[in-house]
Amino acid sequence: MRAIMPHLPALQVVVPLIGALLSALLRRGTTAWALALLVSWTMPLIAASLLLQVLTSGPTSYHLGGWAPPWGIEYRVDLLNAFILLLVSGVAAVMMPFARRSVAAEVDQDKQSWFYSMYLLCLAGLLGITVTGDAFNIFVFLEISSLSTYVLIALGRDRRALVAAYQYLIMGTIGATFYVIGIGLLYLVTGSLNILDIAERLGPAAAQSSRPILAALAFLTVGISLKLALFPLHVWLPNAYAYAPSFATAFLAATATKVAIYVLLRLFFSVFGIAISFEHLPVSEVMLALSVAAMFIASLLAIFEQNVKRMLAYSSLGQIGYITLGISLANEAGLTGGIVHLFNHAVMKAALFLVLGAIVFRIGSVKLADLAGIGRRMPLTMAAFVIAGLAIIGAPGTAGFISKWYLAVGAFQKGWWPLVFLILASSMLAVVYIGRVVEVAWFREPSGLAEKAKDPPLSMLLPVLVLAIATIYFGFDTQASAGIASQAAHALLAGIK
């Protein structure tokens, strides 16, 4: 065991990569699922060990091939990315038992092993983005996760899944191109690709080469914003979530955009924040405006959606607005709110999309009219929807309330008190779209499809209930979420101008 411990950062990527290769060689979907389950349950153990190391001993540096940074590729784990590693791997592990029956029902039998191969490849890419300390290596893992995501979406039986995958491919390619241009400009100025080294060299270089640095900031911000679906760069997301297989939708909603937000945090605060005073740039103001627009416009679009998957997709856009709002506040309370909402939203939205996956498994539809009376036929499943929905609204006693509380405190500390009312007003919009589903599901007579529905098998129901209970648990015990988020926010803000 002692021999393995130093190599945990590398194993965070190597294990799912090997799992993806082996899964592609398997022909039976059930066997591929078992392999994916084993890998998924292994990853949180590695991530938890890394987080414990960071909490006790400080940041961990792993040099690939024995080449010391900045010449070699470095995997560097600090409190922020250890937190994200545990979030991504933990949510994936909880959801994985749900996949066996859901994927068998929604993906053709001869494609199921490929589905699990792409899932593991996507997981490896997301974990690689989070763990690496090399800016170009982020691009490599970004493409690994993106290419596998395109396939996951396209494996949906609805022909519109192919169009959604193609839309995402186009937007994702544009985002990746912007990212590479931004990194190229940083390399031109600093001569390094190591994130820590870029930050050290960028400060002295900023006085003589401010234009390339500002151009790099612009390119990187736009490129990553495309990946995280920041309004108005969100065009790919609603269709991708609506027409992908249910498990793929839940996995991507809980993890992919969260990792992209991590990259934005890392570049803003650990790289550019050291070289540039954001007080002299309109970065915060632009991010604030886009965040508020996302909170309101996306929520309004969700209200009028008849497809509940698309409704929750637009809800995700609004919730991303809350996270980027915390980034734009750029004080400890606001940034804590953004980071903890990143965590809380992953748990809440995973629960909601898994509920929809269970409904698809039973009735084959997520149209709002077809859900009439389904709460009486699937009481435990829809109870989980209500709990996670309350968390999305930000009701006291749920994880969502904690996030919005920190955001409100951050706005007050900044002197932006009208922003508190905007947070409350946008939450009222969530009451409307979540309330529509609750009203149809619980207070109407069962539709023809819902009449014969019942709660899904235990392997599908248990992950849903665990995630729903987690939204309540983290609304009361915040040490593992808001506590670590606060420490991470303090560390990010410590080095900026």
Tell me what you see in this structure.
- There is one protein chain.
- With 497 residues, the chain is mostly helical.
- The chain has two domains: 1-173 and 194-199 and 229-270, no CATH class; 279-497, no CATH class.
- Helices cover 78% and strands 2% of the residues.
- The chain is built from 19 helices and two strands.
- It has helices spanning 8-25, 29-57, 79-106, 112-131, 135-154, 160-190, 195-206, 210-228, 237-243, 246-275, 283-303, 308-329, 332-363, 374-377, 379-393, 399-414, 417-443, 458-476, 479-494, and strands spanning 60-63, 74-77.
- Strands 1-2 form a two-stranded antiparallel sheet.
- α6 crosses α9.
- The chain is globular, with a radius of gyration of 22 Å.
- It starts with 7 loop residues before the first helix and ends with a helix.
- The mean pLDDT is 86.
Quickly describe the structure.
By secondary structure, the chain is mainly α. The protein has helices spanning 8-25, 29-57, 79-106, 112-131, 135-154, 160-190, 195-206, 210-228, 237-243, 246-275, 283-303, 308-329, 332-363, 374-377, 379-393, 399-414, 417-443, 458-476, 479-494, and strands at 60-63, 74-77.
